[in-house]
Amino acid sequence: MDIDNERIERAARSTEILRYPRQHLATFGITNLFYYIVTDPVYSELTPDTTETVIREGRVIAERPKIVTPYYLTHLDGFSTDAKRYFQMLLNAHGPDMPGLFYTYKNEPGNLNIVSDGWQAVIEKLNTEIDKKGDPLAAIIKGQDDLWDVSLLKFIYEITSRSLRTNVQQLGARGMLGMSHGGIPVGARQKIEEMFQQVTTGEIKPYELESELNRWGAFEEYQDRFFNLVKGRK
Questions:
Q1: pTM of the entire structure?
Q2: Rounded CA separation 142/38 (Å)
Q3: In angstroms, what is the C-alpha Rg of the chain?
Q4: pLDDT digits (tens, 9 = 90+) for 100-141
Q5: From CA 53, how far away is CA 227, in angstroms rounded?
C-alpha cells in the first residue's frame, strides 16, 4: 500500500466522533453543522509530557440533498477516470434510472486554539458549553493533528450515512423518488422548475440551468423555454 494512503487510513481509523449532532441532515434545506476537532499537537511526539490540546472550530454546510441517477453522475465534471468507471458499473448494475441522493458540502474553518489542558478535560468543557447553548447541530471529533481534515471527512461520511435513510423516506413520502417521463425523477423535475425560477429572479446564472438540463439529457425538451427565458433577461 502507498505510504500516503497508509497515513490517511491510519488517521481515519483513529478518528473518534465523540459527540454527534442531535439532528439529521435536512432533507429539504441547508444544514449548518458546527464542529470542534480536538487533537494532540503534532509536536507532542517530541515532547511526550505535554498536556496541550489543539482545538479547531468550524462549520460544515450541507446543501439540500440532490436526487440523481447513475446516468446523471456519469455527466458530472471533475471526476477521475476510475470514478467514472465506478459510475459506469453502477449504471450497468442498477440501470440508468435508479434514483439516489447526492450530497454536497462546504467547509468553513474557524478559530484554532491551543490550550494547556489534556484532551479529556477539553472534551468535558466543550460538552458542557454545547449543552448550555442547546445547539442540536454541534459535533465533537477527536482526530489527528496533521490530518485533521481527514477526521472531518470521516465525520461527514458518518453523518451522511446516519441521515440517508430519513432523507430517502421523506422524499419518497412526497413521491419525489418516482420516475417521470424521460427517465427523470419527479424530484429532479421539481428542481429544474426551481432553477428556471431562480434564473428569472437572478439567483443563478443561465449556464447553471443549462448544465443541469444537459446532465439529465433534457436540454432539447426544455430548449424553447430556456431560450425564451434567456432572451427575456436581455
A1: 0.81
A2: 5
A3: 22
A4: 888 999 999 999 999 999 999 999 999 999 999 999 999 999
A5: 57
Are 215 and 75 within 8 A, CB to CB? yes
| CA atoms of 39 and 148, how far apart (whole Å) | 8
SS (H, E, C) the chain: CCHHHHHHHHHHHHCEEEECCCCCCCCCCCEEEEEEEEECCHHHHCCCCCCCEEEEEEEEEECCCEEECHHHHCCCCCCCHHHHHHHHHHHHHHCCCCCEEECCEEEEEEEEEEECCCHHHHHHHHHHHHHHHCCCCEEEEECCHHHHHHHHHHHHHHHHHHHHHHHHHHHHHCCCCCECHHHCEHHHHHHHHHHHHHHHHCCCCHHHHHHHHHHCCCHHHHHHHHHHHHHHHC
